[in-house]
């Protein structure tokens, strides 16, 4: 056996434990307790296997799972960026790229390259797999907010247009899930969780 | 779109959030904070994609991931069973079977059947995929205990023979990982984290 390969992999497995300490803004379903990135990544992965049939295009679900399981690891170094934050840049920042190099760089070189490529494909977001993975990443906090009387929408007073702008990307992965999401958003407007401009 | 299908899937996605409240006995790496089942399931899934090359037999890694992502969901109803508990039965209990029927039963019938079959294959444990998945499930707490000065071994005074009995199943999934694990256990005996009978 190549012990060196295994030791590098174990160092990676040890390091990524830190994802369990990265707190998100969103809260668990019907709860006051915030979700961490490891729980979030697990939930998205189960959502993907559950909802795969609703993808607009045929997808390699194994690749989608790999993306969702590792997509937030860079936040170990760069921290969680709140979806509705209007100041911090959400694009593939220099800090995130450095984090990817450091964290995936713990793995054996060939594997590190594979993991970085999967992370980059998710970040770039233009393959069928990346688009479906992004749908999951946007859909989960909507379900959470709906279960928490508006959750982060209410807490941070996020305007309707911003909600639509950030969540409508769901349709690129799944028109079915987006149609359903629109009914949830409409209902959240009716309940006062999201304010339209003319309501302010 | 078949809204009824999607609504059933969303009910399942909502329900499984409860996995984030199921506390395990083991603690995070170098930490006093206990791990929950959702974090655990995420970690095992990433371990599986990282360590797949060490499987004794060729495996369908997508099936392994599905197993690991859903294997603990029954604990939402039946609770976590401590690996080294000598009183509570670890086998596929009646309570776990009922839990599987209730929780997977939230899904559309055809999908519920698929998920139950994956869970049963993991529980039965005799396919190459189930054996590799079990290796991951046994290997993670060993790494955690080693990082926590013996962790649950020390805390619950688990004897050497019990540790060997419970962990040696790793070899059915991966001889490579088991060889490495044996060096970790030997080292843990030297450090006094695990007591051999003649040392008591
Ligand atoms: Ca994120």
Automatic annotation (TrEMBL), chains A, B:
| GO (cellular component) term, any one | cytoplasm
InterPro entries, per this entry? HD_domain, YfbR/HDDC2
Q: Tell me a Gene Ontology molecular-function term this record carries.
A: 5'-deoxynucleotidase activity
**Residues of the HD domain:** 16-178
Has keyword DNA-binding?
no
State if Metal-binding is listed as a keyword: yes
Q: Which domain of life is it from?
A: Bacteria
Q: Which UniProt keywords apply?
A: Hydrolase, Metal-binding
Q: What is this protein called?
A: Metal dependent phosphohydrolase
Organism, scientific name: Pedobacter cryoconitis
């Amino acid at each position: 056996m190549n012990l060196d390969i295994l030791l590098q992999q174990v160092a990676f497995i040890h390091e990524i434990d830190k994802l369990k300490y990265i707190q998100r803004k969103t809260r668990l379903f019907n709860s006051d307790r915030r979700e961490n990135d490891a729980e979030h990544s697990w939930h998205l992965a189960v959502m993907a296997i559950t909802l795969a049939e609703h993808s607009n295009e045929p997808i390699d679900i194994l690749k989608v799972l790999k993306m969702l399981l590792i997509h937030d690891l860079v936040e170990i170094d760069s921290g969680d960026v709140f979806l509705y934050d209007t100041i911090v840049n959400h694009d593939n920042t220099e800090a995130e790229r450095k984090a990817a190099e450091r964290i995936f760089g713990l793995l054996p070189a060939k594997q590190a390259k594979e993991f970085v490529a999967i992370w980059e494909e998710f970040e770039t977001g233009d393959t069928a797999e990346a688009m479906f993975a992004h749908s999951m990443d946007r859909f989960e906090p909507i379900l959470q907010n709906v279960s928490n009387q508006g959750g982060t929408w209410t807490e941070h007073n996020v305007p309707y247009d911003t909600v639509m702008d950030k969540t409508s990307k769901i349709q690129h992965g799944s028109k079915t899930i987006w149609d359903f999401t629109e009914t949830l958003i409409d209902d959240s407007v009716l309940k006062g969780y999201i304010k339209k401009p003319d309501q302010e």
